[in-house]
Amino acid sequence: MKHGRKLPKLGRTATHRDALLANMAASLIMHHRIVTTRPKARALAPFVDRLIQTAKNGGKSLSARREVARQLYSPAAVQKLFGETAPKLSDREGGYTRIYRLGRRRGDGAEVAVVSIGLAPVKAGKKEKKEEKKQKGERPAGYDKSGDKEIFQEKAAAKGKTAEATVEEAKSS
Question: Whole-model pTM?
Answer without folding.
Answer: 0.67
